[in-house]
């Protein structure tokens, strides 16, 4: 009951902040990009909270339980992506569009914007949805099973949608100061207590060496293709993460947009390293617990994804456990808010305003977007029955966004030769490749014999799904660019800084 009470009070505080901030929303700019006035410290916090969501709390934790230290390849993809984004953050703020798809339209065409919007809507609904799924598991643990994960998922969806509807981006960046702080504090404090719960550092290492020695190796018993397959989705998603570009547009100036990216890098690296280490210690603690393993001795992937929350609920002193569980609530709420916000912004601006309500007033746009948030939240909730684990959902949605949008977006900022037609073709080919793979996986999931198509086998392990998708998207981008007329300087000069 103590855990539930602490988390409930924390959520009420966040709700109070959102209600208060909702009174300051006067325009579409306030709702979508917080009036373009967010200072650097708030931007750092909200960028870190954007990335550290249920995909980290559950997906990264579950992958660590299954593969050990080699999980860091999954996280490192994002770290590299952040450093690349640092190079373009100021330019994004200078162009000052609302969404990533605005950038695609400006560099390529309206068709690119529409394809990008469709990609983001599909993938981000999955990402928002697995915040609901993670929230459902969280509430089930918190209630000691008196609330089922299914009912908990409904409660989580209601809360996340409610937070987002209240004040949009103003609310998100305001509560993320609290969320980011409690997230970092909880991870720092939890690690030593988790180690102590298993008898100390030497006992943790000894248990892992006896149970699964490869968990302490950098490759974890995997090959180079696994490393590429697991690192690509996070790298590509980070490069084309629409909510991040929307938040760059919220910065109060170009310089602070770049400074915030550096802050994000250090924040994300620290939190993800701590999460990995906590989950690794959790493997030692629960190495003999039958709940975490199937009859054949393999890891129960769904249960393994709960490892960090299980440590907080079952292994830590009450105060530390309550802090960690509050951080869990912060992670789920903050990321769910962001992805609902970005998806609804794309639907509102790129579809409703562009084609149906061109003369809508500022107040009407805000209410239109609020209606979109509710509708998208309902659809995201309904999609959750299609997936088994949060990591599976993360890899598919990350690849959907990354393979479709990252090559065209990177080319816009770094390659003068890319053409408008090539950008559109790359987005379309990447999106269709991921949809095709996901569809074949669903069709042949329970087949007696896998389908062999060229060098690929279906169902395809989602650890590798990014490789063929990226090959198709990048190849299309390069081939079509050289097959079509060189673009004019006016097409790229706003995106690429020339020396001198």
CATH superfamily name? Answer: Sodium/glucose cotransporter
Intertermini distance: 64 Å
SSE ordering: HHHHHHHHHHHHHHHHHHHEEHH
User: Tell me, what is the CATH class?
Assistant: Mainly Alpha
Question: How many domains make up the coordinates?
Answer: 1
Mean pLDDT: 79
> How would a crystallographer describe the biggest sheet?
2 strands, antiparallel
* Tally of DSSP β-strands: 2
Strand content: under 5%
Strand numbers in spatial order across the main sheet:
1-2
What does the overall shape look like? globular
Helix content: over 70%
Q: Remind me, CATH topology?
A: Sodium/glucose cotransporter
Strand-pairing-aware structural class: mainly alpha
Please give the radius of gyration in angstroms. Answer: 22 Å
- The residue ranges in which pLDDT falls below 50 over 5 or more consecutive positions are 30-35
* CATH 2nd-level architecture: Up-down Bundle
